[in-house]
Amino acid sequence: MKTTVWCMLMSLLLLAGAATAALRVYDGFDYPAAGGWSLNGQDGGVGWNGTWDGCGYTVVEPGLTFVDLTVTGNCMVRANWPNERRTNSFFLADGETAWLSLLAYPTESGNGQWLQLGEGLTLGQTFNPNWRICDWNVWGDTGIAVTPGQTYFLVVKMTKNVGANNDSAWLWVNPSLLTEPQTNAADQSHVGDLKDIDTSYVTFAANYLVRWDELRIGDTWQDAMPRTIFVGSPDIALYEGATLLPTGGATDYGTLSGSMTAQKTITITNLGDGELFLTASNTPIIEIAGGGAEYFSVTAAPATNIPAGVATTFVLQFDPPDTGDGSAAPLLIIANNDPDEDPYTITLNGAWNNSFFAYEPFDYETNTALNTQNGGIGWNSAWNSSGYTVEPDSLPFDLLVVNGNHAQRDGTFFPTIRALAPTFGTPGQTVWVSYVTAPLSNSYALITDTNTNPYVFYFLSLRLGAQTKLSSGKRAGHVVYEMDSQSIYGSSTIVVTSTPAFIVHRLIYGTPTNEIAMWVNPLPGDTEPGVPDQTITTTSNMQFNTVGLYATGAVGPSNMYGFYYQGWDEIRVGLSWPQVAPFVPEPVLLLPLLLCSLKLKGFRF
Fold first, then answer.
1. How far apart are CA 4 and CA 110, in angstroms?
2. Does 79 score more than 60 pLDDT?
3. Percent share of the chain, pLDDT over 70
4. What whole-number distance in Å separates Cα of residue 63 and Cα of residue 563?
5. Which residues share a beta bridge with 551?
6. Over 70: is that where the pLDDT of 19 sits?
7. pLDDT of residue 362
8. Does pTM top 0.70 for this prediction?
9. % pLDDT > 90, the chain
10. Would the pLDDT of 595 be above 60?
11. Of residues 183, 109, 178, the one with CA closest to residue 149
12. Dihedral, 424, 427, 428, 432 alpha carbons, nearest 10
């Protein structure tokens, strides 16, 4: 056994030595925390060709940390002005790749703090609320907001390509240290003029207080992301799906309404080679403390003893009040025997909004008229027209949360309309609307605007407001219809008889221009959908306080109506994506098989 351990140690040392040889630049800011402009003139680290040259940067303690990233010394904090230092590095040749990593800890809000390589790539928060990389000509965005008081591990892969303005870069925010980050999973991709990946000097600049630490530039991802391993000790890490939740990080439940709850399955992995023990004396073994802790609970507990290379899961539920509006951000605390991550803490962010939310699950007795039914949440009246019935079962879609039955139009021209409690659409507001719909015969739903033109009708299915503002469900494909211009904007997703479709609209209210986006069959979940199937802008008054269902048709001045069968279900109106796309989480596979697979392939832990 001793021989085996000795061989393992020797192998790790040899591998670590090989990786270090490819490290081009490193500064852990292991300088005295002397106050003043104490970074100026410092010359430590690896791969430099001069000292830090610039006032306004101070060395402070302690240094920043991120999971098991190898760290040393203190860190530096910006006080004012840029700070620059020359390196022994060089421009990359065609086809060469370099990796850069950096820890950042913003201590106040602002839009302007970054690191720049030469005159090329810039990494940080460049006049934008989110992390991003750019080259001052091409600007991208990760969509990941910079939050003060949180440590971020920023990793960039850079490749010099043949041709002008053709260099590539990828940015990951808080990636796992276990495996090489994959470019198809990057938080941002960039192609532009990176000045041949000029790493000959590094400049820090910031317009507000931010701490920087552990700057690395190397040839491989291991150079930029080295891990410290405590031999014979456990090594705890938490994951939400495949996403690492570093200690000190956060997970967001979004904004819920009414009786909605949200659950997350969290995986605890032991990446070390000693047994991991969850050591809290309280029950449950995982503590939740701080403001709003009463709205979070562990509904399925993890194992308390976790062998090396094994994982366990627990389920964490957010159940906010069904009245009023508010938010909570308690701390999840896991006491354990990891030598450098005890306790492991995660901030739980959740909000609730019941003032601006409506939900109709059609949870009424089946085979009855919809007229006069007044269930659901956030409504100010009952459904007001005959010709619509409540039919058995929900219209299902993927993992969307569904309840009760569904509504169906059974052959009448008149719509049925229901008033909402609030009016949606004040300037500056973003409103989300979702519903499930299905044509139930070889014809399609219709929505009309008889106030503007009694002879122009479109095959649509749901209406917002007293007049037609936007809808979807055209014969050739789901559409957005904008009334004032009498224009239809379609998607490429064809309407299929008896097949439920999940329709989501996002309405952004500006002054004076409003934006309407539509997604057809986006996947429910925590993450907002990507590029919409259709987006339009309009100066029309898009405010609304009613929702109407239509399923009929007319063609030309002869006013020839057709009567069609259409189903509707799960109508939701709110101010956030999670409100209108709640989902049932799929079971999460534990990580032991992954860990074993990596070990069989010779991966170093």
1. 52
2. no
3. 78
4. 71
5. none
6. no
7. 95
8. no
9. 27
10. no
11. 109
12. 30
The answer to whether residues 440 and 566 touch, using CB atoms and an 8 Å cutoff, is yes
How far apart CA 476 and CA 447 sit, in angstroms, is 15
**What token pair was written down for 377?**
């949440």
- Domains annotated for the chain, with CATH where assigned, are 17-224 (2.60.120.200), 236-355+585-600 (2.60.40.10), 358-574 (2.60.120)
pLDDT over 50 (residue 188): yes
Q: How far, in Å, CA of 327 to CA of 579, rounded?
A: 14
Q: Where are the beta strands (DSSP E) in 144-291?
A: 152-159, 167-173, 188-192, 201-206, 210-218, 236-240, 243-245, 249-256, 262-270, 276-277, 287-289
Residue type, 522: P
Three-class SS state of 444: coil
Q: How far is CA 149 from CA 12, 102, 109, 212, 450, in A?
A: 35, 16, 10, 13, 55
Count Cβ neighbours within 10 Å for each residue of 400-420 and write b for 16 or more, e otherwise. Answer: bbbebbbbbbbeebebbbbeb
Q: Output the six-digit token pair for 46.
A: 């690896």
- Assign 413 a pLDDT band (cuts: 50, 70, 90): low
The pLDDT of residue 136 is above 50 = yes
Going 404 to 405 to 406 to 411, the CA torsion angle's sign is negative
CA distance 239 to 155: 19
